[in-house]
Design goal:
253 residues
Length: 253
């Protein structure tokens, strides 16, 4: 049952995992290291970032700091699942935590919320299935990369396009666009000042803090500000859902 539940996620990992393996190989990882990174890091965004920073010869400290702040969100994701994992051993929680990522979190959170029979053991199986598909795809991608000669300029272009896509997908309101532009400006400023990729870390932290302060101020003082307007509606409001339910009930009757 768990394999069937996780299969759509597993299949979606194959093309992305192949691309990630190819890019990691182009950045200097051999097949063994690619496999280890895919298991120990298990984050597409983080692994693409590692490849990107290695291609520009970024220092190890900058890479570690960027990874730390990028992956810090998993503390929040894990805490939201903690109520469903009560009574589990520390060993179980350790294996559950290291195989958690954004996608299998979404699958498990939905199942926990809607299926009373869904257990922590089912959830960790979903995580391990997704990890298996991701790691194997990365390794195969690395083998493909070793058989092909890839221009690093193409790699940098692909990674830049990927991160632009990731930014665009995060834009839900006007304020996000302003913060994204501010992040780009500060990144250039601090990269120029520090002459190191540590400037990316500084600009990321500073922009995040500024964005938090602005959003908090607007929500408290000007909740109807045009800066908070949604650019697209991903979900129906509760009232809309109720209306649709009433309509469907009327049609069915």
């Amino acid at each position: 049952m768990t394999l069937r539940t996780s299969m759509p996620l597993n299949l979606s990992y194959i093309p992305i995992g192949l691309a990630c393996g190819v890019l990691l190989h182009a950045a200097g990882f051999n097949t063994l290291l690619t496999g280890l990174v895919s298991i120990l890091v298990f984050s597409g965004g983080a692994q693409f970032m590692i490849a990107s920073m290695l291609t520009i010869n970024a220092p190890l400290l900058s890479i570690v700091l960027m990874l730390f702040f990028l992956e810090l969100r998993y503390a929040l994701l894990g805490s939201s699942l903690s109520r469903y994992l009560k009574g589990q051993s520390e060993r179980f929680l350790l294996f559950f935590a290291v195989s958690l990522n954004d996608e299998n979190y979404a699958v498990n959170y939905l199942k926990f919320a809607t299926d009373k029979k869904w257990t922590p053991q089912d959830a960790i199986q979903v995580e391990h299935y997704s990890l298996l598909f991701w790691a194997v795809s990365n390794v195969i991608g690395s083998l493909i990369g070793s058989a092909l000669k890839i221009d690093l300029n193409v790699v940098q272009f692909a990674l830049t396009a990927l991160f632009i896509y990731m930014v665009v997908m995060q834009i839900k309101e006007r304020l996000t666009i302003v913060i994204a532009i501010l992040a780009g400006v500060l990144a250039v400023v601090f990269l120029t000042l520090t002459k190191s990729t540590i400037g990316l870390v500084i600009s990321t932290l500073l922009t995040s803090f500024i964005g938090f302060l602005i959003e908090h101020y607007l929500l408290e003082k000007h909740p109807k500000s045009h800066w908070l307007y949604k650019l697209r509606h991903h979900e129906l409001t509760t009232e809309d859902e109720d209306d649709e339910t009433v309509d469907e009930s009327g049609q069915n009757s």
